[in-house]
Amino acid sequence: MPMHELSLTQSVVEICEQNAGGRRVLSVTLELGELSGIVPDSVEFCFEACTKGTLLEGARLIITRVAPKGLCRECGNEFPVSAYYDSCPNCGGFTVELMRGEEMRVKELEVE
Amino acid sequence: MCTTCGCGPEEHHHDHGDGHLHHDHEHPHGTGEVKGATKISIETDILARNNRLAAGNRALFASRGVFVLNLVSSPGSGKTTLLEKTLRDLSPTTRSAVIEGDQQTDNDAVRIAATGVPVRQINTGAGCHLDAHMVGHAALEFDLENLDLLLIENVGNLVCPASFDLGEHHKVVVLSVTEGEDKPLKYPQMFHAADVMLLNKTDLLPHLDFDVDKCLETARRVSPGITIFEVSAKTGAGMNDWYDWLTEQISGQ
């Protein structure tokens, strides 16, 4: 399956197993920024295959999206961003620092 | 889907253990159902392992004084031809090595080997990108002490390799003029991650409607401060500026 979500989902399983202390995992919460380059549907698709035979088998997958926010380096304006090439709505500048929206994080586990 | 436990209409992922039949959905999925459940806060980056290995690679390259580039592009942008030309032209003064990433075949590695430069092929199989683990192992097969420049040709793909740090100094995105000037807008994550862009196959411009200025402007919108070289690996046009940049970067290691 040529998509990076497969290896990322495998990493999720590894991280969870390391933290579960041998207990069965009931749910996993991921935080994915909208500019992280991860497609949540693909992660969900891979999750079942990747969790088979692990402590996560049958666990519920909860995905929280993080809306991107930018900081204009030119005028200091903070604003919601929808793409990397967005310009500052205040001054039109393109040197925008992304403050959030690229997260790909395992946030929380629920274990038995 | 049951929003309380996440089970689908046909199956149930876990045993409730309270003896009720599933999917009458009149049961309260309350505290009784998850009795003894413990929440564990993790807050770990999904790429943590790759990033840790990439940091290890970076430290290794720094300790040996090797300048490392991760070349990314769509398939057919001319990366391998560009590498062949660069390696041949720099060979008198620069000690180089190449890591080739492809899903299958060692065709590119054979082409690079013909230049006389040491090369290692990584076949990712179904994988769509190189990761820091693969590169760390491949790099150890070179005599790093006697190397100035390591060029990593990533799998041809403008999506997946963007997320994976290999321990390189810079990502270099190669875009050919046959691809259309809006590529930076279509694949912004990759262009955003790149510090350098090589606009290749400029010898074909007279035959195309490609708008160079528009392309460069969009690249700079997505990645402010990106260093851009307009080159033709075939004719050699513009390659000297690229070589000057490489030489300057290598001497800084």
Helix and strand topology:
The complex is a heterodimer of chains A (112) and B (253).
Chain A: H1 4-19, E1 25-33, H2 40-51, E2 60-66, E3 69-72, E4 78-80, E5 96-100, E6 104-111
Parallel strand pairs in A: 1-2
Antiparallel strand pairs in A: 1-6, 3-4, 3-5
Helix pairs in contact in A: 1-2
Chain B: E1 38-45, H1 48-64, E2 67-73, H2 79-90, E3 96-102, H3 107-113, E4 119-123, H4 132-139, E5 149-153, E6 170-176, H5 183-186, H6 188-193, E7 196-200, H7 212-222, E8 227-230, H8 239-251
Parallel strand pairs in B: 2-5, 2-6, 3-4, 3-5, 6-7, 7-8
Explain the overall architecture.
- The complex is a heterodimer of chains A (112) and B (253).
- Chain A is of the alpha+beta class and 112 residues long.
- Helix content of chain A is 25%, strand content 32%.
- Chain A contains two helices and six strands; from the N terminus they run αβαβββββ.
- Chain A has a three-stranded mixed beta sheet with strand order 2-1-6, with helices on one face. Chain A has a three-stranded antiparallel beta sheet with strand order 4-3-5, with no helix packed on it.
- Chain A is elongated, with a radius of gyration of 17 Å.
- The two termini of chain A are 32 Å apart.
- The model of chain A has no long low-confidence stretch (mean pLDDT 93).
- Chain B is α/β, with parallel strands linked by helices and 253 residues long.
- In chain B, 31% of the residues lie in helices and 19% in strands.
- Chain B is built from eight helices and eight strands, in the order βαβαβαβαββααβαβα.
- Chain B has helices at 48-64, 79-90, 107-113, 132-139, 183-186, 188-193, 212-222, 239-251, and strands at residues 38-45, 67-73, 96-102, 119-123, 149-153, 170-176, 196-200, 227-230.
- Chain B has a seven-stranded parallel beta sheet, sandwiched between helices.
- In chain B, helix 3 (107-113) links the parallel strand 3 (96-102) and strand 4.
- In chain B, helix 1 (48-64) packs parallel to helix 4.
- Chain B is globular.
- The A-B interface holds A 1-4, 6-8, 11-12, 14-16, 19-20, 23, 26-27, 30, 35-38, 58-62, 83-85, 87, 94-96, 104-112 and B 5-6, 13-14, 34, 36-50, 103, 126-129, 131, 157, 159-160, 162-164, 184-185, 188-189, 191-192, 218, 220-225.
- Strand 6 (104-111) of chain A pairs antiparallel with strand 1 of chain B.
